[in-house]
Amino acid sequence: MIEYKAGMLAKSKAGHDKEKIYVITAVEDAYVYLADGFLRKLANPKKKKKKHIQLIGCQFELSDCDDVKIKYILKQYQKEVEKKDV
Questions:
Q1: What is the C-alpha to C-alpha distance for residues 64 and 1, in angstroms, rounded to an integer?
Q2: pLDDT along the chain (86 residues), means of 10
Q3: What is the pTM of this model?
Q4: By Cβ atoms counted within 10 A, which residue in 15, 31, 62, 67 is the most buried?
């Protein structure tokens, strides 16, 4: 069974935000709350069903986290992905 944890990166598999990368900020029974620091900030995370996201094998510490740190985490992940594609 897949374990969802706060701080993990996730890619949206469905919806208007398909293929967008988020950081999981909280986990409920069938839902996760996602933030990207731009449109979806920590104060107003996106609620999405677990079946509509795909986990990425990275996890970050979210203690003392703010929107700037979330933007930084996502930017660093994008840089790593671009390096692997080249």
A1: 29
A2: 90 94 94 95 95 91 90 92 80
A3: 0.90
A4: 62
